[in-house]
């Protein structure tokens, strides 16, 4: 394999990776607090990230490396249907604008670090706190593993074989996350996001001229789908409802994840979040254009062994080595930011809602930071081992279920911001029904995200996560009506 | 209420038959694609209007 290595390509890749590693360790001294030995500092960067830092951080964290690989791959494979990521990442922002400033304010006023803290503070229920925290960790683990898959694809594209580079990259990431906390991905996100912007803008500016223009690219994709007899550049009638429900369900789930919530909680104010809800769609535009790389793959006549190779192969085929190296570095570095924030989010949950809640209630802030740092290491090593020793499909299936699971925490986390009618037992019952019912449906459908509902003679497929959320909310309302809504003394009065 | 403007992206994008068509083309992009891409700046702008219309604390 070494014969295939392009010196310029590999040099650019390695140089950028080294630069970013340096930044990761330097981040501990960036916007230096009095002490990093406090969970607010290590795990939330001191809650002082302004509009721009938050924009880069959440952008780098939400639009992951795996997205860069997988969205064009899906569009390459099935066509229009793969574009559901676009409406999804548009409608998510009005939701963020409406909900997240309230959540941030509650968290800041009461010193909450995690979703579990919010739920515990609002309802005074240890059981509900545990449910929300466990769901967060469960949903995040496979997501971290996916980032490794993204990095693996980029490293493989360089022509480097073996698992050693992946292991090395991830261990370095684990070490600087350990020492710098959320400041590391926040600082690296600047580099990562700018690189991704350059790569995508170059691709959409240059590739069409090499492939005969956009009209020809859509035409070539259309022909390829017709020849294959599956997929298409428009949705088939049966795909319409799945497309809309996947977009809506994913949008509701997106900011329930620990990594996105961490970005929200770390920001410096409610207006920081509102401004970001206006500015973050710039990444969505990027994602929509990036998705078109899937069609460019058809127009370029690429022969692929795996759909995931469409982006790397396009760059390798159409660009000089040094720029391909730059693009692959962008993807690999792009994996570091979300992987770091995800492990920090999971570590914050473990520390606050397991360790402090059940094992050591008197833990000091410094003790919390220490537990979180160690947990972030364990989480990352776990994800690494999962990728090295378990089938890739396992991570993909779990990630799919993860979206279904995490959205079940929405009623517990969000409803209380607006009304104080709901009670912990009802929310817990709804969560349980949503989790079990949703997982069962997904399982019985062969781990596909869609479930067919039959009305009379016709059937329509909807996103299982959304279906489970509806079930969840119905149960919450019914149980609440039955048991009443005892106003817990511990309940806060959110603004 | 100005903040109900934020419901428009949901309506515009969730009613998929509104835009699941090839014509009219724009710069070679079928309607399905440029319509959805156009919602990105439109949504940002609507959010901006809502933001400006309300007085927000910190």
Explained architecture:
The complex is a heterodimer of chains A (495) and B (58). Chain A has 495 residues and is mainly α. Chain A has a single domain, classed as Up-down Bundle (Sodium/glucose cotransporter), CATH 1.20.1730. Helix content of chain A is 74%, strand content 2%. Chain A contains 22 helices and 2 strands. Chain A has a two-stranded antiparallel ribbon with strand order 1-2. In chain A, helix 1 packs antiparallel against helix 9 and helix 7 packs antiparallel against helix 19. Chain A starts with 6 loop residues before the first helix and ends in a 12-residue tail after the last helix. The C terminus of chain A is likely disordered. With 58 residues, chain B is mostly helical. Chain B has one domain. Chain B has 2 helices and no strands.
| Helical segment count of chain A | 22
Fourth CATH level, the homologous superfamily of chain A: Sodium/glucose cotransporter
Number of DSSP-assigned strands of chain B? 0
Oligomer description: heterodimer
Helical coverage of chain A, percent range: over 70%
